């Protein structure tokens, strides 16, 4: 296992950070929180076109760059650092990964070029009212084949960017098992309702399908193994975001401790504050290590992915919430105000910890993996 950062990866991080510093400052994040779209289409097109972010993991024959998940993880970490409001997780991680995981070359040829170019916004509609993300039995949405092709009927909840995605990849049940269907966002029989969430920087929607026309992707009834891999990749992606956000709030706390003066000296000189910051630093570095290992596993060691994904998601989720909470404590009264950005990171920390399973879910999953391993 080689976790050394290459010169190309370091340059990618610098380029993405410089771009996001210009296009996603706090003022822009707050502006986008109030818009119906939740993101700036022009910024997304530039991310896709100028930086090639949307096609990083898309094969070159489909208009992408053909890189691995490590490079995408660098982008995700920087996106978490800047609270980027963009369909990065929904389109690039969920939708593109689903298309790549399914055995359907024609679907890849049809959909991936638009995703890579940034012209097609897409998402995966999997979770339903029960909220269980890793249980195939929780998929109750059904698909039926008639004289005019497939139709999908049912409801999905907590769909990332579901209110504006042009392409919906819907997990539905047929007599053969779980399948994935492509549904156009503006197709007849599709109703989309934005969902109010704690984190206004990331949009979710509830979708209802009433005999909506659909296209079967891959083999009927054989989609769950692909979806299981996509969910692991999603957990790794969120962990990378969380590591970036945790590092950012640590930096905010340290900077404030250096400049905020009480009793004639910077508060960072007090032992209690030093210990608090040191503990946050330890949590953040542990989280980054876990995320780094999970990204490498996603790219180079797929059999170990479920274990690494759960480890990273549990570690990074807790570290981000702790760091964001302690950042507010270090800032004192100003940290609790709407005008300060600390609460934006705290809300992102809490909401992202629930995405694709919280820390408790993933620790239970880790325990099941360990207990299932044969004794040596």
The SS-based structural class is alpha+beta
Give the low-confidence spans: none
Mean pLDDT: 93
How far apart the termini lie comes to 23 Å
CATH class designation of the largest domain: Mainly Alpha
As for the number of domains, it is 3
How much of the polypeptide forms β-strand, as a percent range?
Answer: 15-25%
At the fold tier of CATH, the topology name of the largest domain is: Butyryl-CoA Dehydrogenase, subunit A, domain 3
Count of alpha and pi helical runs:
11
Gyration radius from CA atoms, angstroms: 21 Å
SSE order in H/E notation? HHHHHHEEEEEEEHEEHHHH
The level of helicity is 40-55%
CATH superfamily heading of the largest domain: Butyryl-CoA Dehydrogenase, subunit A, domain 3
Number of strands: 9
**Oligomerization category of the chains in this entry:** single chain
Shape: globular
The main β sheet shows up as:
7 strands, mixed
Architecture per CATH nomenclature, i.e. the level-2 architecture of the largest domain: Up-down Bundle
């Amino acid at each position: 296992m080689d976790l050394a950062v290459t010169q190309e990866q370091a340059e990618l991080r610098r380029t993405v950070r410089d771009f996001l510093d210009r296009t996603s400052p706090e003022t822009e994040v707050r502006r986008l929180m109030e818009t119906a779209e939740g993101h700036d289409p022009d910024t997304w097109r530039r991310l896709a076109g100028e930086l090639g972010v949307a096609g990083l993991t898309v094969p070159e024959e489909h208009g992408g760059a053909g890189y691995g998940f490590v490079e995408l993880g660098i982008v995700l970490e920087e996106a978490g650092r800047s609270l980027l409001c963009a369909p990065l997780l929904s389109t690039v991680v969920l939708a593109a990964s689903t298309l790549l995981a399914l055995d359907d070359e024609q679907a890849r040829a049809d959909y991936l070029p638009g995703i890579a170019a940034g012209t097609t916004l897409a998402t995966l509609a999997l979770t339903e009212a029960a909220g269980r993300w890793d249980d195939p039995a929780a998929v109750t949405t059904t698909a039926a084949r008639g004289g005019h092709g497939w139709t999908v009927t049912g409801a999905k909840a907590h769909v990332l960017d579901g209110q504006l995605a042009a392409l919906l990849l819907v997990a539905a049940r047929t007599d053969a098992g779980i399948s994935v269907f492509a549904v156009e966002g503006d197709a007849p029989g599709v109703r989309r309702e934005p969902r109010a969430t704690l984190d206004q920087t990331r949009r979710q929607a509830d979708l209802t399908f009433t005999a909506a026309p659909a296209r079967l992707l891959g083999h009927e009834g054989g989609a769950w193994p692909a979806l299981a891999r996509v969910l692991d990749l999603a957990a790794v992606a969120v962990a990378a975001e969380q590591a970036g956000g945790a590092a950012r709030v640590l930096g905010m706390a340290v900077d404030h401790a250096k400049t905020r003066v009480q009793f004639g000296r910077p508060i960072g000189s007090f032992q209690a504050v030093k210990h608090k910051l040191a503990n946050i630093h330890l949590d953040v570095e542990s989280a980054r290590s876990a995320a780094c290992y999970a990204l490498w596993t996603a790219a180079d060691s797929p059999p170990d992915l479920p274990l690494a994904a759960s480890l990273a998601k549990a570690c990074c989720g807790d570290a981000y919430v702790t760091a964001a909470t302690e950042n507010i404590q270090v800032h004192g009264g100003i940290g609790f105000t709407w005008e300060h950005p600390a609460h934006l990171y705290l809300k992102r920390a809490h909401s992202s910890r629930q995405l694709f399973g919280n820390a408790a879910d993933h620790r239970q999953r880790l325990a099941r993996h360990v207990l299932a391993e044969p004794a040596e």
